[in-house]
Structure formats: structure tokens, C-alpha cells
Amino acid sequence: MKQTLGPKRSLADDIAGYAFISPWLLGFIAFSVIPIFFSLYYSFTNYDILGSPIFNGLANFRRMAKDTLFWQSLKVTFFYAFISVPLRLIFAFFVALLFNR
Q1: Would you state the pLDDT for residue 3?
Q2: Are 83 and 77 in contact (CB under 8 A)?
């Protein structure tokens, strides 16, 4: 016995669905995917705005790993993300509970 799962979709329904999703998809590609790929590409080059990019491999990452300012920035970022933000959220939650009573 053949079992049907629901009404069949037509090609027109599929095209309409793709038409509705295409603006979001184009925006996502233009404003997220392409910049991510360009950032990845430029991270492996020596680049200034006036010249063309020159490939230098992992030299940028080696220089970054040796930079003390990078490690200090990383510590501050982790402190803010994992300690400061959760503590503020907990404090705000308890203040909201007090105002709600």
C-alpha cells in the first residue's frame, strides 16, 4: 500500500519559496560569507590599501602570537565575556525579581 505524506507541492510553489528566500540569501552571502572569505585571504597577506596583497603565509599569526598587547587584550576579552557579562545578567535578574514583587 502506498502512503502519502501530504499534498504534493507544485513547481510553482517551489519557485515562490525560492523567490521569497532569495533576498535574505543574497544579503547573507554579500554581507557575511564574502567578507569572511576576504578576511581569511587577507590574514595570510601583507596588504595596504595602496598596493596589492603580498602572500606571507603565517607570518602575521606568528607576529600576533609574540605580541604582548594581543595576550593582554585576550585576557580582558575573556574576563568581560565569561565573568563580567554573566555577573551583570545575574544582578539584573535579581533586581528585576525585586521590582516584580
Answers
A1: 62
A2: no
